[in-house]
Amino acid sequence: xxxxxxxxxxxxxxxxxxxxxxxxxxxxxxxxxxxxxxxxxxxxxxxxxxxxxxxxxxxxxxxxxxxxxxxxxxxxxxxxxxxxxxxxxxxxxxxxxxxxxxxxxxxxxxxxxxxxxxxxxxxxxxxxxxxxxxxxxxxxxxxxxxxxxxxxx
Length: 153
Prior knowledge:
The chain has helices at 5-16, 41-48, 102-109; strands spanning 24-25, 31-32, 35-36, 53-56, 63-67, 70-74, 80-85, 113-117, 120-127, 133-140, 143-151. It is an alpha+beta fold and 153 residues long.
């Protein structure tokens, strides 16, 4: 289960006993390919067209929409709860895209927080507000492999 930004901050502070500043981005930058978190499915389809595949996942985010290089999960009310891009065609508003060098991301937003989660190690940026979502990057050989916008359920 993902950790909220506030829970992560609390655990980091407890572990280090010193002030830790989370790397932040604008709330608007926690969107990918023109799709924002909490958008209605109808807006997604009007922006991107019909998905190649629609899958019922049986999870909290129970509908998965697959587009070339872009996966969108819908939750309650068929609203966007998570977005994953593996294509340089689907980027954040500030231009973070799969295929770009980590150094380019850091030039835009500074160094990310490196987080080990149950499904791997990620580079993460958090919103400036208390928006319960964040941007998560997978990196291999100093190149962004995927960009994910996700939220704490």
